[in-house]
Design brief:
- The protein has 113 residues and is mainly beta.
- It has no helices and 10 strands.
- The chain has strands spanning 3-7, 10-13, 18-25, 34-39, 46-51, 57-59, 67-72, 77-82, 91-97, 107-112.
- It has a 6-stranded mixed β-sheet, with no helix packed on it.
- A hairpin with a 5-residue loop joins β5 and β6.
- The termini are far apart.
Length: 113
């Protein structure tokens, strides 16, 4: 059974930083691409960043230079370091391990101006 647990969200002022974590189990973590997504109220879920099994990374234009995705295969955990946060980064953040629709409960990030 695949389990996905996101954590690390919170309330931060604009310009601040947060690091999100996504712990997974029940999946061949080291072979798959992991994606971080976010969904703001009234908006569709969008891809923020992804990292493949070879540590190749891809970022949405809106977060390039501010967010960094990384993975620890020994811990089956993915991280999203978010710096210089902006109010428009406010959303629920989710991670998705692999191509199937395995989602966690998400973690809320709120950036105040």
């Amino acid at each position: 059974q695949v389990q996905v647990v996101e954590s690390g969200g919170g309330v931060v002022q604009a310009g601040g930083s947060l690091t999100l974590s996504c712990a997974t189990s029940g999946i061949t973590f080291w072979l798959i691409t992991i994606g971080w997504y976010r969904q703001a109220p009234g908006s569709q879920r969008e891809l923020v960043a992804e990292i493949d099994k070879n540590d190749n990374r891809n970022y949405a234009d809106s977060v390039k230079g501010r967010f960094t995705i990384s993975r620890d295969n020994t811990k089956m955990t993915t991280y999203l370091q978010m710096n210089n946060l902006k109010p428009e980064d406010t959303a629920v953040y989710y991670c998705k391990p692999g191509p199937r629709d395995y989602w966690g409960q998400g973690t809320q990030v709120t950036v105040s101006s």
